[in-house]
Amino acid sequence: MAKIPYVRLIREFAERTPERTVIVIEDVPVTCAELERRSNRLARAYAAQGVREGDFVSICLPNCAEYFHACIAAWKLGAVPNPLAPAMPRMERDALIAEADPTLIVGLDEPVQGRRTLPAGYEPGPEFADGPLPELVAPHERAMASGGSTGRPKLIIPANPALYDTERAMSLFKPRNAMLVPGPLYHAGPFSAAWGGIFAGGKSVVMRRFDAERCLQLIEQHRVDKVFFVPTMLNRIWRLPEAVRKRYDVSSLEYVGTGGAPCPQWLFRAWIEWLGPERLFEGYGPSERIGRTFISGSEWLQHPGSVGRPVDGCRLKILDGDGRELPQGEVGEIYMLPPGGAGSTFHYRGAERRVTDDGWESVGDMGWLDEDGYLYIADRRTDMILCGGRNVYPAEIEAALNAHPAIRASVVIGLPDDDLGQRIHAIVETGGAAVSDEELRAHLEPRLVRYKWPHSFERVTRPLFNEAGKVRRSALRDERLVRVERS
Predict the structure, then answer these.
(1) Which of 345, 415, 424, 463 is placed for a possible disulfide with 289 were both Cys, Cβ 3.0 to 4.6 Å?
(2) What domains appear along the chain, each with residue ranges and CATH number?
(3) Most confident listed range (25-29, 32-36, 395-399)
(4) 141-184 pLDDT tens trace
(5) Could you give the C-alpha distances from 285 to 189, 258, 393, in angstroms and in order?
(6) pLDDT per position as a tens digit, 406-424
């Protein structure tokens, strides 16, 4: 089957099944007809603001029905949606808007850098009709924001236009009944899950904000069969009291995927023991789409800790700092080559590509391969700690710490040390639970060689990771560096 424009799919759904519920935002349903008619009115209103084919439209909206209408309205004009976090700090937001150079910003009350804006909750006037528009195809399906390893804001713009390829759609994003979307839609994973569920002809059940127990309620209520969680969400659901977790019927689940960050082995194994290996899956794939890996729960039991082998025709290799390919078992930088060749999947605004002379590309993640070609994630190149002449990868320490029942999450950073070069500092989110340094070291004793143990522990009660399972490691490090300099 040929690739189908997103806007044509939305129109055809409205014509064939107008009263079918296609999106549920918590308990508020949106029908196919509503999605089509309102996005048509919005598209005409956006056009009146000057939006034309190929333009960018920045969308600063939370998870809500208006977000979906705004994206479709942009696509109907051949424009590119640029989702941004509505609560993003002003300086970061303005830097990304400068990179995007949008014709229109949706969700803000006042102009930014002289650009036109429409507020959240904007209602088009009666002069804007809700009938079909001429079919256009946006040159890029989206323009996602990323802080990157340096913390400098950038945009990742995929090469693919706003076309749905039925033959290449991931099985995760093709629900039989309903797709649950627990994360913020301005991140790549939730964006792909929500729209993938819609374009596949299913229903996307979208949470306004992630809540562990509410998540289980929605799975039971809507008979959800597909869901994608970041590891932080898996952890928070697992940490619910057992009586609460088992109160809900989750037997409809057929596919529970995780990614976006390395999943601790103990946690993935716990979910396998709960739901069975045939329903658990893990993957690795940068938003740049230079390649991805995939592993089933059954495979994972044979290769615990792995994120799988390359799929979809991409190739993968591990290189050292001098560009030499490393043998199995040695940690280095992950380089990938998509089936379409170098530069075929995306381009940046606000950053430079990290690419070899022959076109292999990296986003700065570190890892290693086992003898069967399965990939294991170590850490980002910029996050590595050089302590006493040894390379120490925070993810390994964090995985060990997170296995402690009192720790909800942890972030390990390197701080300056006159003797060691860098000392290992662990920031642990306890939620108020009391756990001593001695107890944490006793917990690490059977799990880590001593040179990887943190030299210091810091306890916090506020969440270290956001709703998308992301952490601003560089910002946490910078805050501690300021304290060190002042002391």
Answers:
(1) 345
(2) 259-381 (2.30.38.10), 384-486 (3.30.300.30)
(3) 32-36
(4) 999 987 544 445 789 999 999 999 988 888 888 899 999 999 99
(5) 10, 11, 20
(6) 998 999 999 988 667 789 9
